[in-house]
Amino acid sequence: METIEFNDFQEKTLAIPEELDAFLGGGRGGGKSYALALLAMRHVEMYGNQARILYLRKTYKGMADFELITRELFGMVYGTAARYNQGEHVWKFPNGAYMELGQLETQADYAKYQGRSFTLLIVDEAGQYPTPDLLDIMRSNLRGPADMPVRVIVAANPGGPGHHWLARRYVFQAAPWTPFHETKSKRQWIYCPSTYTGNRFIDREQYRDQLESACPDDPELLRAWLEGDWAVNRGAYFASVLDEGRNAVATWTEIPEDWEVYLAHDFGSSAPSATYICAVSPGGEGPDGKFYPRNSIVLVDELATNRRENPDMGLGWTVPVLAEEIIKLCDEWDVKPQGVADDAIFAKTGSAYGSIADEFRKAGVNFRPAKKADRITGWNVMRRLLADAGKPDRPGLYIARHCTYFWDTVPYLARDQKRVEDMDTTGPDHAADAVRYGCIRRDPMAVVSKIRFNY
């Protein structure tokens, strides 16, 4: 029998326990489809006649390549003992296991699966689904014996119609290959990235040439395909400077004592407010073991008051309610609730409260004006910090993966079509504004001096 060889990505993916759901979310050519076939075969071998696998694509035409992969792999392992019914798109294995290659495009297609049970659900090219609704419904079909884990595997490339929801759910939750809790499914997931450079079974130079020729006028899409970068969004304001691999960092559990810390805040009530805990490196390692050059800024945590279904609509919180939540956030990190905010909150309102900043101060949160100057200057500072992240001798801007409002909005903000050096203000730019204030703060030592509690 022929020997089955794996590339490094496939080997790491197969090492993940069956109890974890997995998102295979790399660039093109990394070997994801073959990994899916290997995971299905392992499930067959582990659970025998209890294994019921459903592989889904949006169209039957789209599954042709995967069908060929299964014919090659299963034929190599089982010979003629594994039988494939091409009319029904069903594999039957010698140990009684079952695998169906199915199609799901509309709500009407779900009727084919309603009431049926599967122990492993594989969704390939999930980026073709602009919303997760149909796939979320399919999870109700996962049922198995009490001693047998049921599982979901999702695979996608960045850049498709479903780019945003996939990135939000699976990419910017934790560092690659690190388990995390996904709230919608209430399951433990793991993000498994891959790129063509790690696939030794293809002619990598030739494959790169093919990808480059496929999108000669779309450098952001090319970067997504080559590098598997989920921070890419074609035509976006930060597309050329915001890179998941450079700018996203794992969630911290503490802030080192010798780091400066302050808040950066953009106020909103009917619109969302966004507040970030910013940690400034003295030039050294963070709790994640990563070296951050002097004056690098790490967005350690966030508080965003947007509605779940609309990133541009606020929760209507009053200043006292918002201040209470900001204080809770600061208590969690052992920092004082003070920093910089939009100059507009310091304007006198004519009410008995004075200004919004006065209300915050009375509630225990102290802000200073960001002195933001013109928007373009602020954006240029923020863009330079984003672009310099990862350089050993230049300060950069880094964002914790669990800062979901940042990753849900900032990578996708558009340019102003009439003033291309500026951002289009019609989008949900609240996180971006808060971060901009944090990047251009004046006299940072005055803002951050003696900001820690001493217990």
Brief descriptors of the model:
455 residues; alpha/beta; nine-stranded mixed β-sheet; seven-stranded mixed β-sheet; 14 helices; 22 strands; elongated; disordered C terminus
Task: Kindly describe this structure.
- By secondary structure, the chain is an alpha/beta fold.
- It is built from 14 helices and 22 strands.
- Helix 2 (32-47) packs across helix 3 (64-78) and helix 11 (375-388) crosses helix 13 (430-439).
- The longest helix has 16 residues, at 32-47.
- The protein starts with 7 loop residues before the first helix and ends in a 7-residue tail after the last helix.
- The model is unreliable at 442-455 (pLDDT under 50).
The percent range for strand residues is 15-25%
Strand line-up in the sheet with most strands:
3-4-5-2-6-7-1-9-8
| Low-pLDDT windows of residues | 442-455
Annotation, overall tally of beta strands: 22
| Secondary structure: helix percent | 25-40%
Terminal residue distance: 67 Å
For this structure, the quaternary state is single chain
Class derived from helix and strand content:
alpha/beta
Which word captures the global form? elongated
Radius of gyration equals: 25 Å
Would you tell me the overall average pLDDT? 89
Biggest sheet character: 9 strands, mixed
Number of helices: 14
Quick structural summary:
The protein is of the alpha/beta class and 455 residues long.
Architecture blueprint of SSEs:
Elements: H1 8-14, E1 21-24, H2 32-47, E2 52-57, H3 64-78, E3 83-85, E4 90-92, E5 98-103, E6 120-123, H4 133-138, E7 151-155, H5 163-171, E8 180-182, E9 187-192, H6 204-214, H7 219-227, H8 244-247, E10 248-249, E11 260-266, E12 274-280, E13 284-285, E14 291-292, E15 297-304, E16 306-307, E17 310-314, H9 319-333, E18 338-341, E19 348-351, E20 354-355, H10 356-362, E21 366-369, H11 375-388, E22 397-400, H12 404-409, H13 430-439, H14 444-448
Parallel strand pairs: 1-7, 1-9, 2-5, 2-6, 6-7, 10-22, 11-18, 15-22, 18-21
Antiparallel strand pairs: 3-4, 4-5, 8-9, 11-12, 12-15, 13-14, 16-17, 19-20
Helix pairs in contact: 1-2, 2-3, 11-13
